[in-house]
Amino acid sequence: MDGFIELDGVEKVFDVRRKAGFLRRERHRVRAVDGISFSVPRGGMVGYIGPNGAGKSTTIKMLTGILTPSGGRLRVAGIDPSRERTKLAHRIGVVFGQRTTLWWDLPLRDSYGLVRRMYRIPDGRYRANLDRCVELLDLGELLDVPVRQLSLGQRMRGDIAAALLHDPEVLYLDEPTIGLDVVSKAKVRQFLREINAERGTTVLLTTHDLTDIEQLCKRVMVIDHGRLVYDGGLSGLHATGGGERTLVVDLERELPPIEDAPGARTVKVAGPRQWLTFPADHSAAPIVAAVAERYPLVDLSIREPDIEDVIAKMYAERGV
Amino acid sequence: MADRFPVAAGLRGYALVVAMWVRSTMAYRASFAMTTIGNFAASGLDFVAILLMFSHIDALGGFSLAEVALLYGATSCSLGLADLTLGSMDRIGRRVRDGTFDTLLVRPVPVLAQVAADRFALRRLGRIGQGALVLGWGVAHVDVAWTLPKGLFTVVMVVSGAAIFASVFIAGAAFQFWATEAAEVQNSFTYGGSTLLQYPPTVFATELVRGVTFVVPLAFVNWLPALRLLGRDNPLGLPGWVDFCGPFVALLMLTGAGLLWRVGLRSYRSTGS
Fold first, then answer.
1. SS (H, E, C) A129-195
2. pLDDT digits (tens, 9 = 90+) for A261-272
3. In b/e form, how buried is each residue of B198-232, taking b as 16+ CB within 10 angstroms?
4. Element holding A61 (H helix, E strand)
């Protein structure tokens, strides 16, 4: 199947000038994006993660037509973003987490009015879309409030609605949950799930909050030093990153560390409680069975690897 | 539809954004009233300085008070019009630095229109109002036998002058793609240039007059056409037809500034800052 978003060997090279004396400038080239290829089908929902300066924002800027790639081929909905930026604008929605596009001194409603005129959204469609966003993002009471009086979470919800009024086929979100409280985060995630499921809106989001990825994206792409180092499911990320799951067992009494559980290793003992780790892609069943058979087991629980640790480990292994 | 015609799309987008800024301003009515009056008064003080000068002398560089008022009013109106329509373009440097410029690039409206309309401030009507008053007074008191062609000539002079200043604003904004601090250089041409043009060219050194005629053609804003209007000789001894070149110079400069803007935008999009 042809991708809706397609990148083939996309590169972005910056010439950076650095002060190297009173008037002297040193030039050197920075490969911010170094040959990235991927394809996202229509209706996909993908997390795009990586440390600061890895090339995430640069990729998004190329996908929206803000930046012109230095090499490779890039298509969004069949359009070359850098060449037909204005045409593409009608088909994409962009939310920059820390840069609001709402009008500070005006009621939220006025910002939406501008979007309606700028994108020439027909009245009926505009009303339907606005009503929907207002309902799902809980904006009803905020429409007549000047944006400067909104909380960060309210403003973010307002920004997301603004990006969706013209029915974009693709939605790019750059850190959509940054700085939000738990309730706002949950609302934003729920909303994104719904528009993705109902409208088939393709969603690409960058985030530092891995819970976003865990709750929203079946597929995750990890970028580092301008290269794609992982592209696949979340579970696979655990395996690739050498993630480990932890089995916590509570025994009837204090015992020496368990050493005969297949494929597992005891890493900690505290009184009757012991912690055993095993590779994330292994099944817990044989280990649990072995422990239950040989030891007086009272209770047990399994902890999934922390995705942040997994990624940190992945970077460490690549010698970052 | 209109999107096929970039100029129409640009003007429409410009009007949309301007309307938003006007509404934003009206959220603080009292502040708007005060800044407009302040703007009117501050630009008016300039002319008070000229009036004070004339209380001691009868002519400045051979120009009477009414003639200076005509020069002053014409350039003030020209700059005021350019300042009103795109006076906040120099904010583009800040937008580039804080990254909000990118949010303009993902909208289906030409960026130049959005940047031109940025921070549109109605209070700048103050400068135009003050300039128009002085111009009106000068027109009424100079020793010119007014005819319809001369009146039209004056209007064309003010409008081409505004276009020349506008092109300097656009060029200044374009330069900020390379040097985000370039705003001051541009201000020295627009605001500084306008101060120069408020006085008769005869009070300045020939070299300076030559500079603003050929290098940065600000002389076409009012000096050359006004000299013709007042029946004066060109201080550089240029042929008479040059006095009528204002609109062409304006068109040429606007085209140049537009091209510079395109190059700047392209450079931004290839370097990101």
1. HHHHHHHHHCCHHHCCCEHHHCCHHHHHHHHHHHHHCCCCCEEEEECCCCCCCHHHHHHHHHHHHHH
2. 888 888 889 889
3. bbbbbebeeeebeebbeeebbbbbbbbbbbbbbeb
4. helix A56-63
- The ipTM estimated for the assembled molecules is 0.85
Cβ within 8 Å of A, B 2-21? 3, 13, 16-17, 20
pLDDT tens-digit readout, A44-87: 999 998 887 888 889 999 999 999 999 999 999 999 999 999 99
Q: Phi and psi at residue B247, in whole multiples of 5°?
A: -60, -35
Residue type at A318 in one-letter notation: R
Q: Which residues contact B30 (CB under 8 A, 6 or more apart)?
A: none
Output the CA–CA distances (angstroms, integers) from residue B11 to B3, B108, B113, B192, B266, in the order listed.
11, 13, 7, 29, 21
| Least CB–CB distance from A66: residue in B28, B98, B105 | B105
- What's the Rg (C-alpha) of chain B? 19
Domain residue spans in chain B?
6-266
CB contact, 8 Å: B271 with chain A? yes
In tens, the pLDDT along B38-50 reads 888 887 888 888 8
CB atoms under 10 Å from CB of A137, counted, come to: 21
Residue in the block written with tokens 């002297």 = A24
The DSSP symbol for B64 reads -
C-alpha span between B220 and B246 (Å, rounded): 5
For tokens 């392209």, name the residue.
B266
Average pLDDT over residues A32-42: 94
- pLDDT tens track, chain B, 273 positions: 445 678 899 999 999 999 999 999 988 889 888 988 888 888 788 888 888 889 888 888 888 999 999 998 998 899 899 999 988 888 888 898 888 999 999 999 999 999 999 999 988 888 899 999 999 999 999 988 999 999 999 999 999 999 999 998 999 889 888 876 566 677 777 777 777 777 787 777 777 776 676 667 778 888 888 888 888 877 777 888 888 888 999 999 999 999 999 999 998 888 765
Residues of B in contact with A117 (CB under 8 A): 16
- Considering only CA atoms, which of A126, A92, A127 is closest in space to residue A201? A92
Give the β-pairing of A219-224 and A202-206: unpaired
Alpha carbon distance B253, B112 (integer Å): 16
3-state secondary structure of A251: strand
Q: What is the mean pLDDT of residues A25-40?
A: 87
Q: How many cross-chain Cβ pairs, A to B, lie less than 8 Å apart?
A: 68
Separation in Å, CA of A223 to nearest CA in chain B = 19
Instruction: Compare CB distances from B103 to A82, A85, A96 and report the shortest one's residue.
Output: A96
Contact B27 A68 (CB under 8 A): no
Q: Which two tokens stand for residue B102?
A: 């990118």
B199: DSSP letter: S
Interface of A with B (CB under 8 A): 14-15, 58, 61, 64-68, 70, 82, 85-87, 89-90, 92, 94, 96, 99, 101, 103-106, 110, 114, 117-119, 146
* Alpha-carbon dihedral sign for residues A125, A131, A134, A137: negative
